[in-house]
Every structure is written in structure tokens, then in C-alpha cells.
Amino acid sequence: MESDSPPVAFPLLSTWIDYTYKPCTIPYRFPSDPPHQPTHTELLWIDLFRKSIPSLKKQADADDTVTDASSRAAKFAQRYSTILDELQDDPQRHGGPPDCILLCRLRELCLIECGFRDIFRRVKDEENKKAISLLGDVIRLADSIEDKGDRMEHLLKGVFAGNIFDLGVTQLAELFASSGMPFLGSYEKLLSRPWVIDDLEQFKLRWLRKSWKKVVIFVDNAGSDVVLGILPFARELLRGGTQVILAANDLPALNDITYVELVDIISKVKEIENGKEVFYGVDAQNLLVVNSGNGLPVIDLSRVSSELAFIAADADLVILEGMGRAIETNLYALFKCDSLKIGMVKHPEVAEFLGGRLFDCVIKFTENAS
């Protein structure tokens, strides 16, 4: 489903009288703060985004789909640096005050303004291809675990292992460039439990007690994240009779998977057996991909595609995956149904806010009380 309609609010957001949805998790400022003076938190995040400019400039410089990419990449770096300087001088500039959504949006606008549409397209294509070649082994390893609860725990840890692939984070971009970050190696290097937010046991108990009828998963990165982390997890849900809706970005943002790219991946991993679509032996007719309407590595659920809103309206579990969608935004979002927020903490500023460790894991499960 492609989105060509105006954005709407995600229909499963809570409508409690005393609840107002706020997408950003971290409070960047309070009403008492001087409006034209940046807060300490705003300055931290401006600096965080400033540190990402060199790696993004390097990636843009290598974009062979853009004429004169080198000079355009330099223009992007200068333009975005100037905007960050101006926000540092006066946080009310450029639609501020700044938060992670605005800082991401301004960065994407600068890239587009300089002629770049998808600076990570080549590396995403390469990583998707590599991950698809490994998918069978990952699924066979999961299937070898007979206990249903243990298998689900293994698959959730696999989501964390896959989510390490994030070229939008400076440290991970440098590490990936030097090592390639193999999936199984990432799995073995997950920080020990208990994690900073650790509802794994509660989620397993709910899963063992009763499967969900329809699940919406807001996916994150290309490559090992979506292919080796999310797809095996989604397959397990399908095996239990659940309909699974994968919601992917409309527009490119860093190395996030897009709707078009995910449709292509799904077409490559599905097969036809006896006239039915299967995904490694599991009926895949209930595996769908929808355009979320989003174009950022974070998401404001008050603005999603009408197609997603329609197909998700009767879901009984919402999953937000990745640091941007599940931690930096929406960690405290409330829903009319069960919800799972799962991701890895990749910024020191986020780790400090949560009281955890860098590369700590977050699995926040909230069961609908109604």
C-alpha cells in the first residue's frame, strides 16, 4: 500500500481524558525556561546532531547518483552546521524549540535541498543482500529451540542483535566501516540482563498465555535489523496464527528501511507452495507491508498514513522497534491495546536519561488493562 493521502493520527493511541500524546520521550525544556535561551538538554542534542555531520558528509560525498556530490556534500555540512549554530543562539529559530524530531527533520531537509535523496541506498542494498543470504541459518537456529518461551526470548534478543546496524549513529558507523559487524557476533555481545528497561518475562508470559490476532510492527533499519531481527520474529507470530503488519518509512532517512525496499525484500523471502505464500515453511498470507507515511528515523504517531490507520485500527498489539521510534520517541506513549517498545540505547545522552548503559537494551511491554 502506497500513501498518497494527508497524514492522520494513529487510531490506537490512547484517548484517556487525562492523557495527551507527546511523541518525544526526553523533556527538552519546561514552560519556565526562557524562550530564546537554549536549555542544557537542547544544547546536548544540538551537539549530538553536530557530531554526526562528518560521517553523513562522507556518505553523501560517495553518492554516485548525484552529480557533483562532493561539493554538494560540503554544502550540506555547512548548511546544517549553520542551522544548528542558529538554534544554539536562539532555540526559537527554524520552527523551534528543537527536539529530536525537529533536528531530524531539518537534517533531512538540508540533504534534500542539496540534491540528496537517499545517501545510504548503496549500503542498504548491500546489507539487505547479505542479510537475506543469512536468513535461512538464523531461522533454522531459532526453530531448533523447542520450548516456545525460550524461542521467543531468543528471537527478541535477535531483534536487539540486528538493531545494532545503525549507520546514523557515529560510533556504530565507524565500527561498521572497520569490522562489518556480523550478526551472530552482535548477538553474543549484547549487554547482560537486567537491561535498563526489562519486561522480557512479562512479554513472554503474555505470549504463552494467548497469541495476538493482529500485530503492527513499526520497523527500523535495513539489513540485519529488519531481515535477521524482525522477520524471524514476525514469522514466529505468523506461526501462532497472528496477522502481521510491517509499517515502514515512506521516504528514506539514514539507513532506515523504506516501504518500497521492504516490499522487495518480502518478495524475495516468500515462496509459493501449493498455491499459497509461505515464509520458510510458515503460511505468509497474513504478512503485509504498509507505508507508515513517515520520513524520519523517529516518528510522530499523530501523523501517519491513512492507509496504515485503516489497516491497524483493530490491531491488539503495537510494536515500535529501534532507538528512534521506541526510545527517543514514544517510549511513554499509551495505546488502546497491548504495546511493546524494543530498541537499543545508542546515544550516551539517552543512556544517562534512562539511568542505563550505552548499548543497553530496552524492552517495555504494557498490557492493555481493558
UniProtKB/TrEMBL annotation:
Keywords: Hydrolase, Manganese, Metal-binding, Nickel
An example Gene Ontology CC term for this record: nucleus
Keyword Membrane annotated: no
TM stretches of this protein: none
Domain Damage-control phosphatase ARMT1-like metal-binding residues, every copy: 50-361
Domain of life: Eukaryota
GO molecular function terms attached to this record: ATP binding; hydrolase activity; metal ion binding; pantothenate kinase activity
GO biological process, alphabetically ordered: coenzyme A biosynthetic process
Names of the cofactor(s): Mn(2+); Ni(2+)
UniProt protein name: Damage-control phosphatase ARMT1-like metal-binding domain-containing protein
Native species: Adiantum capillus-veneris
Classification of source organism: Eukaryota, Viridiplantae, Streptophyta, Embryophyta, Tracheophyta
